[in-house]
Amino acid sequence: MSNVVLAWGRTASGLIYYLNQKGHAMANIQSIVPCLWFDSQAEEAAKFYTGIFDGGRITQVSYYTEVGQEQHGQKPGTVLTVEFEINGQKFTALNGGPIFKFSEAVSFQVMCESQQEVDRYWTRLGEGGDPAAQQCGWLKDKYGLSWQIVPSVLTEMLKDSQSPRAQRAMAALMQMKKLDIAELQRAYAG
Question: Which whole-number Å values give the CA distances from 32 to 89, 94, 101, 132, in the listed order?
Answer without folding.
Answer: 10, 16, 21, 31
